[in-house]
Structures are given as structure tokens and as C-alpha cells.
Amino acid sequence: MKNYYKRKLWVKGVVALLLSFLLACNGSNGNGGNGDIDTGKDVVDFGTSPDGNFVAYIADQNTDGVLELFVVELATLEDVHKSLQELRQPTVAKLNAVLNRYSQEILVWPAEHDFKIVQLDRNQVIAELRKMNPQLEAIDFELEAAKHKVELAKKNFWPDIGVGVDWIQTGSAIGSGTSGSGKDPVALMFSVNLPIWRERYKAAQRQAQFNVSRTIQQRTEAENTIVARAVRVLYDFEDSARKISLYQDVLIPKAEELLQASETAYQGATIDFLSLIDAQQTLLKFQLQYERSKTDNKQRLAELEMLVGGQLDAAENPAVGR
Prior knowledge:
Layout: H1 2-26, E1 43-48, E2 54-59, E3 68-73, H2 75-98, H3 122-132, H4 134-154, E4 160-167, E5 186-193, H5 198-267, H6 273-308, E6 311-312, E7 320-321
């Protein structure tokens, strides 16, 4: 029993000394520390540095009676965590700018809702996009205006005939013996403008026709670009939906089973502590990727609705409404 306590004190001393060395190398002013926890079969003792950057433990990893010293650096994980926390402020400012609000306005953290995968018909989405995309509709208005200018240019070859009536106020009569004195005259006018500048009219007509051709080509180019973008977004949307099903139905349940089996095996001293940690990290990794896939899926759906110019309903054959 006396040798056991000596061994325990020696292990604690080694862990504390190692943590103190790591803190000195890391520029920290904290003192090395460790805590007694029930670590299981192969971990003899465990210690955490006051700054939280390192975890050190002594364990019989191979269960062969040989104690080994292990160090886990937590600074990288802590840096990622802090970066994500600090990213919230610029993200909120960007969202406020989109909503035309003051950048420092408080934006309530969104509540988590039940997620449902939206099934979209690829061909119908593309067809609705060609018909309802706001950018294509704007070009269609320009095309109609260009066509009307062509019709107007054709009318320049016809003579302009004008008919009008003019009235002149003469005032009171000067001589009572003069016939019609004091009466306001009314004049009937007739005019004809002959189209003699025919080459100029032809040039104006050709210019109007070229504007129509240019607008048609611009619409074709814009449509091809938008459809290509929509096809890519559809791929990302469907790919994220596939990953959601994969993580939800296969990978996460398997990782949970692996973690449960690892906990049982660790309690039975058949695997080492690192294997148990790896099982937990695998589960956390799959859960994070699952949440990332859900976010990607909703973002791509919003992008598709922006391209289509309407809401895509969650149905087998989606309808598009404004």
C-alpha cells in the first residue's frame, strides 16, 4: 500500500512538472495543475493546465504494465471556438445591412426548427426559371421596346399628312362700313411632309433592327449563364440532401454504436483511452458535418428561389408562386 501511494505521488509530480514546462514554453504565467478523476482502467492520472491549452495524462495504453506519458494540445480547438464566436458580430452586421437596419442592431439568434428535405423536379425548376427569372423579364421588356422602335422606323417612309384649324382674335370693329370688320377669322390648315431622306430612314431602320438582334443575343447569353448557375446550385442542393440522409440514417447511428461499444470495451480494459476519444471525436465530426449539410441545403434552396423569382414549394411536383 505504501508503494502504491508513492507511485501515485510520483505520477502526479510528473504530470504537474510536464504541465509547468509546457506553460513556461507557451509564455503562460499559470501554475501547473492536475485534478484527480476516475479515469478508468489504463489512465493512472490526468492533469489540465490552468490556461486550458494542454491536457497531460499517464496511462498504460497498451495494457502491458508500462506507463506512458501523453499530452493533448487544446489551443487549436479553443482558437476555432473563439473564431466562430467572434464571427457572429460581422455576420449580424452583414444581415442588418441586407435588411437596411443599423449595423449594431441586435439580431435574435434563430431558433432551430424541424428540418425537412425539399424534393424538387429539376426540369420544372429550369422551366420556371426561364419564364420567371427577374433578370430575363427585364431583358424581355427591353426587347419589346426595341421591336416597337423597328415598327416606328418603318413609318418614316410614309409621308406625314397634317390637318389643323387656327383661330385669330382681331378685337373690336374699326369701321362699321367694312364687311366682316371685328369678326375673328378661322383658318383651315393642311400640310404634307414628304419622305425625301430615304437613306437616313433606311439607316435608322437598320439600327433599330440591330438593336433587336443585340437584345436577343443578350437575353440568350443571360439565359445560358443563369441556367448554368441554376444547374450548379441544383447539384449542390441535391448533394447536400444526399449527405443529410447519409449522416442521419447511416453514419451518425453507426458512430453512436461505435461509441457505445468503445465505452464498454474501455470499461473492460480491452481498448485504450485514445481509442475511446477517437470514437467520440468521430461522432462529433459526423454531427457537425450533418449540421453543415442542413445549412448548405437551405442556402442552396434560397439561392434557387432567388434565381427563379418565386418560392419553391415542398412537393413532388413543386409549384412556383410569388
